[in-house]
Amino acid sequence: MFGVIVNVITVILGSCIGLLLKKGISEKVSTAAITCLGACTLYIGISGCLQGENVLIVIASVVLGAVLGTLLNIDGAINKLAKSAETKFRKEGQTVSVADGLVNATLLFCVGAMTVTGSIEAGLTGDNSLLITKATLDFVSSMMLASSLGFGVLLSSVSVLVIQGGLVLLSGLIAPFMSTGAINEMTCVGSILIIMIGTNLMGITKIKVADYLPAIVIAPVLYNIINLVI
Where are the beta strands (DSSP E) in 69-219? Predict the structure, then answer.
């Protein structure tokens, strides 16, 4: 769990620095920064989508994930949990909520091959090198995100702990099902959600991205089912 703890600490430190920087930024500059961040997020999402190998798995995962997430009202549940923090930390006129910052940062920090592969390696072999490398990247990313998206980015450190920590603890069970192909499909689906975040940040869309979260889990499941049948 050493690599996970290091990652959590870097997200907390980076977010705190970003929040301090945010205090000296005007609303006009902050809005411009969010738009630029949205464009960069689009680039990250598009790059990740290229890792997918089976478009049918991607389509099915996103559709099924959207249906399941909407029925479960995941977005509503997250917003409800973030309500108390949002009331305390959200400034009047601020366009990005605590819940938005939490969901956006969680996806950016926890979706991708480095998260899954690094956590499984740490759990099975004790090698934390990949997670520590990711922690360094997340330190810089969390500063940028928190300076634009606010307090919700700091809360995403809990998500990093739960998701990556869970993967480390369950690595022995999930490793056989997380082949390179399964990870690639999961990364591709997660990257589509990241593209949604990018368009939201740029003000193009108002997608409830949290409702699509089940798609990330569905993708490797479908990949393994198809491989088993075929």
Answer: none
- Separation of alpha carbons 44 and 17, rounded Å: 23
Token pair, residue 105, equals 């940062």
Structural domain of 14: 2-229
> What are the tens digits of pLDDT across the range 196-225?
988 988 888 888 888 998 998 999 999 999
Give residue-wise pLDDT tens across range 126-185.
889 889 989 988 898 888 888 888 888 898 899 899 989 998 998 888 888 888 899 899
Longest dimension (CA), the chain: 58
- Residue 126: φ, ψ to 5°: 80, 5
Whether pTM > 0.85 for this model: the answer is no
Token pair 């029925």: residue = 71
**Which amino acid appears at position 161 of this protein?**
L
The answer to whether the CB of 203 falls within 8 A of the CB of 43 is no
Helix 113-125 × helix 129-149 angle, to 10°: 140
In the chain, how many domains are there?
1
The amino acid occupying position 149 is: L
- Token look-up 């603890």 returns 169
The two structure tokens encoding residue 28: 């006009």
